UniProtKB/TrEMBL annotation:
GO terms for molecular function: peptidase activity. Residues 103-274 form the Band domain. It is found in: Membrane. Gene3D superfamilies: Band 7 domain (3.30.479.30). NCBIfam families: hflK. Residues 1-11 have a biased composition (Low complexity). GO terms for cellular component: membrane. HflC and HflK may interact to form a multimeric complex. This is Protein HflK. SUPFAM superfamilies: Band 7/SPFH domain.
Amino acid sequence: MPWNDNSSSGSGNSGSGKPGPWGSPPPEDGKDAREDKAQRPSGGRGGGPRGPRKPPSPGPDLNDTLDRLNARLREFFTDGQGNVRPRAVGTVIAGAAALYLATGVYFVQPDEQAVVTTFGAYSRTTGSGAGYHLPWPVEAVEKVSVTTLNRIDVGGMDGADVPEESLMLTGDENIIDLDFSVQWRVNDASKYLFNVRDPDATVKAVAESAMREVVGRTPLQPVLTTARGQVQEQVAQLMQSVLDRYDAGVFIDGVQIRNANPPTDVIDAFRDVAAAGQNAESAANVARGEAAKVVQAAIGYREQVVREAAGEAARFNQVYEQYRLAPGVTRERLYIETMQRVLANSNKVILDTKGSGPVVLPPDVFRPKASAPPAPTARSGQ
């Protein structure tokens, strides 16, 4: 059934502002129908049974927040008549003082020492745990690790050579290219901080000086081969004595020679000399071994001769005792034993001296005995 606006006067429903048949007024004259469609949410995300979306709520206003904070501070510090409350001021001062005093609390780790200074001057040293010092600017604290190993390289590192540091003169007036490292740590934090301006540079200078002194009184060949450990130990001891005289608060943990060679220009000749020395040492070892064998053989032969002589002497003494008891029998027995030894391996001809005819010896008597022919060997395949 068609809809009519009975309450309207004039022509049609133009400009009446009354709602249409679907609950919304008809569009005014001169406006596009699309404006009305844009004002009315359609179904979907913004419309439908849930209605239109609410606009995002604005965040807190900074000015309002500051105003409320100022109002609360005003209420805290003043009374209703605008007078300042002394108790509130005292509370603020006490809180600020407590915070200021709390800045003096400090904690020291087990591997550290803390040095407390008063107006920049040394006051005391504390160990691990909690401590307290008067707040700045009266006192200050500086912590130093006393267990961390520090390392200093002299002569170069990672293939980079520094000839000014590595070239040294040995005790036999040869030049050596030597690189080494020093491990050190702090053993007294107060001395470390106040007695030495630049600890790293000081330790490096002392290390270079000590190494030059020790190498300067040691020949080249021992430094290159067998005396490295001795040189390292002497350098560490010399460094420690010098740093103790400086009162530096530094402990030398060890010195390690990383590289020790002749200069590059003459390194081939030095290697030839070293090889010749090794060959000579090897030949000497072989000769000493042969000499030891000869000596042992001579000692064995001497012992054998002495024992044989002792045995013969004992045997002679026994024969002599028998000879004293029966001289004739003993002489006969000695004669027979001697003839047995002499005639055992010889051809013998027995002659009867009582005969009157001539004696003719057979010709085979003076011929040497022919050795037995070797046994024939069996041929293969027979």
